[in-house]
Amino acid sequence: MTDDLLRIDGLRAGYPRRRIIDGLSLPPLRAGTVAAIVGPNGAGKTTLLRALAGLLPATGDVRYDGQALLQMTPAERARYVTYMPQSLPQGIALSVIESVVTALRVSTFAADRPESLVHAEADAVLQRLGIGHLALSPLDELSGGQRQLVSLAQSIIRRPRILLLDEPTSALDPRHQIDVMQAVTETAKSDGMIVLAVLHDLNLALRWVDRVVLLSEGALAAAGPPEDAITAETLAAFYQISGRVERCSQGLPHVLFDGKIHD
Ligand SMILES: Nc1ncnc2c1ncn2[C@@H]1O[C@H](COP(=O)(O)OP(=O)(O)OP(=O)(O)O)[C@@H](O)[C@H]1O
């Protein structure tokens, strides 16, 4: 049955001597949904993304549009899923635009698209992320934040059905954080892409995403619309901080941290 849903049921994943995620099930995610994966350090957020990307052994029932993702070969899975790691590898002798064009070329979607069209597409993605001016810069001469934006451009241009982003805004100034969240949410809506983004910034999650998945010790602690999952109660129970979510003068939700609960 096709349904454009990402379903995760009974997922188990981890490392050779340590299982981190032990039977995780999430409410289904619909095409076009942007979900933030949040939770304290070591909760298993990266492990979850890497398991879904096929970079770690995993068992369980994970389906997109009725198709079992965990049973696919890497090549088959790459048709559906793109994973953006926390950092780009160093030592790649390409310009920014060449690296984005290459990312599109290696995906199955653009193998026979004319060169001029591929370049125009790459340029449009760079503009959208506010880094059009870096198109001809060598990758190895970029700052940490600029590298993060290029890595996102390489991921978005492939137009995956499922985009997995590991802390896509961690190195970015506020303006570029907005560029990223805007580009990701717009692309999700226009292309029907499902995005799972690990975010530590709960305010970005409150402001931009459709769903929040809160993990704690490899298990689901809360899931739902941002203001249902990020509450004074969940901040206390899973982050051990006293805090609250309040609306600012413009009606936007913000999380305020009052202090630690235990020293
Ligand atoms: N290669 C590894 N081998 C063994 N254990 C690992 C490995 N990588 C991570 N872990 C453990 O798995 C657990 C979850 O790590 P993970 O990186 O998924 O957490 P996270 O929620 O992404 O954390 P953070 O917010 O700090 O990035 C941690 O306890 C960590 O020590």
From TrEMBL:
<protein>
    <submittedName>
        <fullName>Iron ABC transporter</fullName>
    </submittedName>
</protein>
<dbReference type="GO" id="GO:0016887">
    <property type="term" value="F:ATP hydrolysis activity"/>
</dbReference>
<dbReference type="InterPro" id="IPR003439">
    <property type="entry name" value="ABC_transporter-like_ATP-bd"/>
</dbReference>
<dbReference type="InterPro" id="IPR003593">
    <property type="entry name" value="AAA+_ATPase"/>
</dbReference>
<keyword id="KW-0547">Nucleotide-binding</keyword>
<feature type="domain" description="ABC transporter">
    <location>
        <begin position="6"/>
        <end position="242"/>
    </location>
</feature>
<dbReference type="InterPro" id="IPR017871">
    <property type="entry name" value="ABC_transporter-like_CS"/>
</dbReference>
<dbReference type="Pfam" id="PF00005">
    <property type="entry name" value="ABC_tran"/>
</dbReference>
<keyword id="KW-0614">Plasmid</keyword>
<dbReference type="InterPro" id="IPR027417">
    <property type="entry name" value="P-loop_NTPase"/>
</dbReference>
<keyword id="KW-0067">ATP-binding</keyword>
<dbReference type="GO" id="GO:0005524">
    <property type="term" value="F:ATP binding"/>
</dbReference>
